[in-house]
Amino acid sequence: MAYKMAGIRSPMDEIDFAEIDDSYSYKELQHLEALGFCLFGEAGYLTEEGVTDVGGDLPVNVSGGSLGVGHPLDASGLRAVVDVVLQLRGEAGALQLPEVETGLAFGWRGVPSTSGAAVVLSN
User: Fold this and answer.
1) Mean pLDDT score across all residues of the chain
2) Rg of the Cα trace of the chain?
3) Secondary structure element (H or E) that encloses residue 77, with its range
4) CATH number for the domain harbouring residue 19
5) Phi/psi at 11 (nearest 5 deg)?
6) What is the number of structural domains in the chain?
7) Less packed terminus of the chain by CB within 10 Å, N or C?
8) pLDDT tens sequence across 46-81
């Protein structure tokens, strides 16, 4: 629904970077696939090829992700949104990505509800 509302047809081509839940080590890969950045079963290859690195085509979790910032539990999604906003404003300091226009934040509530939310933000 977030892509439809934002007019995104091809996430990999139209989104510059993403902050995606990684509250468990495998969740980032699972969410990359579920969010349509790659086909199911291909997120590991995408990551291994450096696509999700800071200098890659789709930097993911430049902030360090949920695990890197201490996993703020139910506030993880909000933290992701704040990190996307800082990038878009050019206020991410040493973590700033060059020339970003559109970012995605995805938060996953986790067990027991397993609900999630995606937000696409752009300049």
Assistant:
1) 93
2) 13
3) helix 76-89
4) 3.40.47.10
5) -50, -40
6) 1
7) N
8) 999 999 999 999 999 999 998 888 877 777 889 999
Would 109 be classed as within a structural domain?
A: yes
> pLDDT tens digit string along 113-122?
778 899 999 9
Compute CA distances 82 → 9, 47, 86, 96, 118, whole Å. 24, 24, 6, 13, 13
* SS3 state at 118: strand
Q: Which long-range contacts (CB under 8 A, 24 or more apart) does 10-13 make?
A: 11/35, 11/36, 11/37, 11/104, 12/36, 12/37, 12/38, 12/57, 12/58
Among 65, 58, 84, 50, smallest CA distance to 20 is for 65
Q: State the Cα–Cα distance between residues 97 and 78, nearest whole angstrom.
A: 20
Query: Would the pTM of this model clear 0.85, i.e. be above it?
Result: yes
**Per-residue pLDDT tens for 90-100?**
999 999 999 99
